[in-house]
Fold:
Amino acid sequence: MVVGTGYVGLTTGLALGYLGHNVTCVDKDTAIIDKLERGISTIYEPGLEELLRDSGDMIKFTENMHERLPSADIVIIAVGTPSKSNGDTDLSFVEAVGREIGAAMNPARPPVIINKSTVPIGTARRVETVIKEELERRGAACNFCVASNPEFLREGAALNDTFYPDRIVVGTEDVAALNLIRQMYAPILEQTFTPPQAVPRAEGYSLPALVTTSPTSAELIKYTANAFLATKISFINEFATIAEKVGADITEVAKGIGLDKRIGPGFLKAGVGWGGSCFPKDVRSILFTSSQYNCELKLVQAALEVNRLQRMKVIEKLQQTLKVIRGSTVGLLGLAFKPNTDDIRESPAIDVIKELLDMGARVKVYDPIARDKYRQAYPDQEILYCDSAAQAARDSDALVLITDWDEFWHLPWEEIGESMGKKIIIDGRNMLSGEELRQLGFTYTGIGR
Ligand code: UDX
Structure:
């Protein structure tokens, strides 16, 4: 049973169903369950709808976990863990699921409970306590285990990362629970399944490691991984600024250092900064935890600050090229925090649009997928939503590329240039060819090049 049908829950549930397990996906939201039952994906994620369509009888969807919980071998908690305003994590959804598990489970046949939501250190124990309290209330008692099994999937590649992970981390001291979890993941650990058509196995992919740890280490692994990756991006973004000053190209520098196996090439793309539902939240959460322990994470703190400033770099570059922003029309390419998702949470686009509007610009935006999500989140913002990149460019004095969607590789730049007021491009993801665009008469500015 998988509780919660967000990115983590739905992807995990569908993948486990595909691998041959009987899965029940639970969500309190009847509208979500209704859609999923009709084979409609509730989140935008490549391959998900195909898998949903083909899942057949292996997957059931329900709002009510009580009916099937007593017969479940494993219950995976994958509900939301939003940030509180002080950076702490709101565990109310996780604890509510814990209480429901305690209220509905069969003490003679307790399931192994897995915490997959990203949660602060100690949450596995906290969930254990909540379940115990609920059992006591029923006058029942039993031995059961709450293991920590953090998810490392990226939005936009969630199914790929679930079927073909680098590693699976399981934090538990209970041998029987570990064996059951290992059994659940066996098809992935041994890659014995036929890849779904929509999620092919990459050539050269090697078997993932199973990393077994204490629950606390598993919980810390998740935060350490995300804080490290976020810091790696902020690091290259800081060096992008030096690269600009000394006349180097940060993409060349990143290539030059990334080939060193100790550094690795990933997460060295300089740009407008990191966003999304994980990095900002998890970085704040681990900073909060560390402050509770009186231990300052200075590097992580700096990574957060560099990221905040990085978002404004495109505004500075607009000021340098366009000079006066008030009264100008600026076209924005991309609203999502990264390509292949409609997720706009903590997207750099949010800060850039707000700043442009505050500065008196007229703002036109285009995103292949995330437009409706953005409009719902910011219904009062006076911006012009466009149906294509070319439409966002028309009559604009400058274009700012925020999200590196594939389709921006192949835009009809000559035509676009002719339709623009001034031919200025600020490439917040260093994805376009400055040379080509300059030849077409554009004033092109990337980040750190
Ligand atoms: C991240 C982690 O990668 C994943 O393991 C974890 O489970 C959840 O958080 P996600 O938020 O989906 O995944 O996106 P990711 O691909 O990591 O990108 C995060 C942000 O960093 C995006 O805004 C992206 O544009 C930015 N980024 C990424 C860069 O600016 N440069 C890079 O080199 C890589």
User: Anything to note?
Assistant: The CA atoms of residues 423 and 434 lie 13 Å apart. Residues 151-155, 226, 229, 233, 267-269, 271, 274-276, 278-279, 337-338 surround uridine-5'-diphosphate-xylopyranose (CB under 6 Å).
